[in-house]
Design a protein that fits this description.
The complex is a heterodimer of chains A (318) and B (309).
Chain A: H1 2-29, H2 34-37, H3 45-55, H4 61-73, H5 87-122, H6 127-141, H7 144-158, H8 180-213, H9 216-223, H10 228-265, H11 270-279, H12 283-311
Helix pairs in contact in A: 1-12, 5-6, 5-8, 5-10, 5-11, 5-12, 6-8, 7-8, 7-10, 8-10, 10-11, 10-12, 11-12
Chain B: H1 2-25, H2 34-43, H3 46-63, H4 65-68, H5 101-137, H6 139-153, H7 157-168, H8 172-199, H9 202-209, H10 214-250, H11 262-269, H12 277-305
Classes of the chains: A mainly alpha (318), B mainly alpha (309).
Chain lengths: 318, 309
C-alpha cells in the first residue's frame, strides 16, 4: 500500500510541474508584450519598474519561470489589473464560493447519478432503463449555461419561486447554509451544475452494473440461494469504485463548467472571476484562477486514485 | 457412356440449385465485407437513421441559409425589438435589435457546425499522427509524447479552452486553435492505444521480416486498425466541440457581433429574459438539439462499427 501511495504521489509531481508551465506560458501566448499584459494601461513608471523586477522580464524565459514558480509557491500570484488587489485574495474568496456550490452539487450528482445508473443496469432493456439512458444522453449534450437560463425563466421569471441570480442578501460573510432564505439562492445553480455529472455517472454506472451482473460470481451468489436483493447489493458494491473514479473526474469538470454556470447566475465564484478577467483582459487573474483550479483538479485525481485503491485492493498491484 | 452419365448428372445439378436457394434464404451464410456489414447494421437501426436525417437537415439548413432565411439576419428594426413568436411574420420573434430570430438561428448554424467540425478534424490529423508514430516507435519517444499529453489531460477541457482562448483574446481563429489544442491529447491517446495493441501482433512482425519499411508498415498494416477507433472517437467529439465553442462565445471569446452565432445570441439575449423569455431560450435549444443528434449518431456509428473503447 505504501509503495503504491508513494508511486502515485511521485507520478503527480511532474504533472503538476507541467500544469504550472502551461499556466506560466499563458502570459506569453497573449498577444503583445508580456509586460503590457500584466500591467494596467495607466501604470506609472515606478510600477513598470517594479513589475519588471518582480517578473524578471529582462531574464531568459526558463529563469523567469523559476522566479514565477518561486513567487507562486509562497502565494504571490501577482496583482489584478482591474482593481489592483493581490490575485491570491480574489482567487481564494472565489474558490470558497465555488466550493460552497460544489458542496451541494457533488453529493447530489453522485447519489442521483449512481441511483439512476443502478436502476437502469438492474433492468436492462426495460422502460426504466430507456428513461435513464435518455436522461443521461440529454444530460451529457445539454449546454449547462442554457439549462441555467431555462431554469431561471421557469422558476424566476414565470413563477417567481426562486431568485434568479446572486448569493443572497447578506453575501458570504453571514451565510447560513441551513436557512431557506440563503439556501434558495443555491437551488438553481446547484441543479444546473449537477446536470452533466448526473448524466455521465448514470451512464457509466449503468454500464458497470450491467457488466457485473453477467459475471460468474453473481451466478454463484444466485446458486447459493441468495435473495435477489442480496445479489443486487453485491453487484452495487462492485460498481462503486468505477463510479467513484468517474465522479472524481467530474469534480474537475464541475469546477471547469462552473465558469459558464456562475456567469449565468452571477455567482461570485471562481468561474465568475474568470469570465470577469476575460472581459477586462486581466491576465494575472486569469492565470491565477486557472492555476488554482487545475491544481485542485490534479489533487482531486490523486485523492480519487488513493481512495479507489482503499476500496478496491486489486488496483494497488497495477 | 453418355446415355448413362447424363441421368447421373441431373440429380447433382438439382442438389446444387437446392443448396443455392438455401444459402439465399439464410442470411447467416451470406458473406459481407466489413463495410457492407456496417451498412447493414446502420440500415437496421432506425433511431440512428432518424437522428442522422436531423443532422443532415441542420447541415443543409446552415449551408442554404441565404436561400431559406425569411429575412436578412443583420437587418435591425427599432420598433420591432424583442417581439414574441409570430409577430408580423417573424415566426420565432425578434432579438434585442429587432433582427429576425429564425434567420439568425439558421445563419448561426454555420458558425456552430464550423466550430464543431474543423477543430476535431485538425486535432484528429495532428493527434492521430502523434499517437500512431509514438505508439509505433515506442520507447522513450512514446513516453515523452504521452507524458506531455498527460499534462494537458490534467486540465478540465472547458478550463483549458477558456485559458488559451482567454489569453489569446478570442475570435473565431483563436477559438479554433484553443479547441484543437484541447482535443489533440485525447485523440492522441486513442491512436496510441490502438497502435500499441496492433504493433505486437504477428502480421506486423511478418511484414517487418519480409523487408517492409516502417512507413510502409504504418500505411498498410497499422492505419487500417487505428482509423476506425479514431474516427469513432472523433465523431463523439464534434458535439463536445460545438458545446465548448458556443460556451466560448457565450463568454465573449468567440465570434464578434453582429455575426449570428448561437452562443453569442444566448449571451446577449440573456439580458432580455424578463421581456420575451422563450425567444431568449431559442439559441440554446438549437445548440442542445444539434448536440444531442450528433451524440446519438456517433453512438449509433460506434455500435455499427463495433469498436470497443
Amino acid at each position: 500500500m505504501q509503495s503504491y501511495l508513494l508511486r502515485r504521489i511521485l507520478y503527480a509531481i511532474p504533472i503538476a510541474i507541467g500544469v504550472s508551465i502551461v499556466c506560466f506560458s499563458l502570459v506569453y501566448i497573449a498577444p503583445g508584450d508580456p509586460l503590457e499584459t500584466v500591467l494596467p494601461p495607466d501604470a506609472t513608471a515606478a510600477m513598470v519598474a517594479q513589475i519588471k523586477h518582480i517578473y524578471g522580464f529582462d531574464k531568459p524565459i526558463p529563469v523567469q519561470y523559476v522566479i514565477w514558480l518561486g513567487r507562486v509557491l509562497v502565494g504571490n500570484f501577482g496583482i489584478s489589473i482591474a482593481d489592483g488587489r493581490p490575485v491570491i485574495l480574489e482567487v481564494g474568496q472565489a474558490l470558497a464560493n465555488t466550493g460552497l456550490l460544489a458542496l451541494y452539487a457533488v453529493p447530489l450528482a453522485f447519489t442521483l447519478g449512481y441511483a439512476m445508473g443502478a436502476v437502469a443496469g438492474c433492468f436492462p432493456g426495460g422502460w426504466l432503463d430507456r428513461c435513464v439512458t435518455g436522461t443521461a444522453v440529454a444530460g451529457v449534450s445539454v449546454p449547462n449555461y442554457w439549462l441555467g437560463i431555462v431554469l431561471v425563466i421557469l422558476f424566476s421569471v414565470q413563477y417567481m419561486w426562486l431568485p434568479a441570480t446572486g448569493m443572497g442578501p447578506d453575501g458570504v460573510s453571514q451565510l447560513h447554509l441551513l436557512q431557506w432564505t440563503d439556501l434558495k439562492y443555491f437551488v438553481l445553480p446547484v441543479i444546473t451544475l449537477a446536470m452533466i455529472p448526473i448524466g455521465i455517472i448514470a451512464r457509466s454506472t449503468r454500464a458497470a452494473v450491467a457488466e457485473i451482473r453477467n459475471q460468474d460470481f453473481v451466478q454463484t451468489l444466485r446458486a447459493k440461494g441468495l435473495s435477489e436483493w442480496a445479489v443486487i447489493r453485491h453487484v452495487l458494491k462492485n460498481a462503486l469504485p468505477p463510479a467513484m473514479a468517474v465522479m472524481g473526474l467530474q469534480f474537475g469538470y464541475l469546477l471547469g463548467g462552473s465558469i459558464l454556470v456562475e456567469t449565468v447566475f452571477s455567482w461570485p465564484g471562481s468561474g465568475y472571476l474568470l469570465s470577469k478577467a476575460i472581459i477586462n483582459r486581466d491576465v494575472p487573474v486569469l492565470q491565477g484562477t486557472i492555476l488554482a483550479l487545475s491544481m485542485i483538479f490534479v489533487a482531486t485525481n490523486l485523492l480519487v486514485d488513493l481512495l479507489q485503491s482503499l476500496v478496491d485492493p486489486r488496483l494497488r498491484r497495477g | 457412356m453418355t446415355a448413362v452419365s447424363a441421368p447421373q448428372a441431373m440429380p447433382l445439378q438439382a442438389e446444387r440449385s437446392d443448396a443455392q436457394s438455401d444459402a439465399a434464404s439464410l442470411p447467416a451464410t451470406v458473406v459481407r465485407s466489413y463495410w457492407q456489414s456496417v451498412g447493414y447494421r446502420l440500415r437496421h437501426d432506425p433511431a440512428t437513421l432518424v437522428f442522422a436525417a436531423i443532422v443532415l437537415a441542420i447541415v443543409l439548413a446552415a449551408i442554404f441559409a441565404p436561400l431559406i432565411a425569411p429575412y436578412d439576419p443583420l437587418k435591425e428594426s427599432i420598433i420591432g425589438r424583442l417581439k414574441p413568436f409570430g409577430w408580423r411574420g417573424h415566426l420565432l420573434g425578434t432579438d434585442d435589435l429587432g433582427r429576425d430570430m429564425l434567420s439568425r438561428l439558421l445563419y448561426g448554424g454555420r458558425v456552430a457546425l464550423l466550430m464543431g467540425v474543423v477543430p476535431v478534424l485538425i486535432a484528429s490529423a495532428v493527434g492521430g499522427t502523434l499517437g500512431v508514430f509514438g505508439g509505433f516507435v515506442g520507447g522513450w519517444v512514446n513516453t515523452a509524447t504521452m507524458r506531455t499529453m498527460d499534462v494537458f489531460y490534467a486540465f478540465p477541457s472547458v478550463l483549458l479552452a477558456v485559458a488559451i482562448a482567454g489569453a489569446m483574446g478570442g475570435g473565431i481563429a483563436n477559438g479554433m486553435i484553443a479547441l484543437t489544442l484541447v482535443f489533440i491529447p485525447p485523440i492522441c491517446r486513442v491512436a496510441e492505444t490502438a497502435t500499441t495493441q496492433v504493433r505486437s501482433l504477428d502480421f506486423i512482425e511478418a511484414a517487418r521480416a519480409s523487408g517492409a519499411r516502417p512507413l510502409t508498415i504504418i500505411r498498410h498494416h497499422v492505419l487500417g486498425n487505428v482509423l476506425g477507433p479514431v474516427f469513432i472517437y472523433a465523431s463523439s467529439l464534434v458535439s463536445v466541440s460545438m458545446l465548448l465553442a458556443s460556451g466560448l462565445s457565450f463568454l465573449g471569446l468567440g465570434v464578434r457581433p453582429p455575426t449570428p452565432d448561437w452562443g453569442l445570441m444566448l449571451s446577449t439575449l440573456r439580458q432580455s429574459i424578463w421581456v420575451v423569455p422563450w425567444v431568449c431560450a431559442l439559441p440554446g435549444l438549437a445548440i442542445f438539439i444539434t448536440s444531442v443528434c450528433f451524440n446519438l449518431v456517433s453512438d449509433g456509428l460506434r455500435a455499427a462499427m463495433d469498436v470497443r473503447m
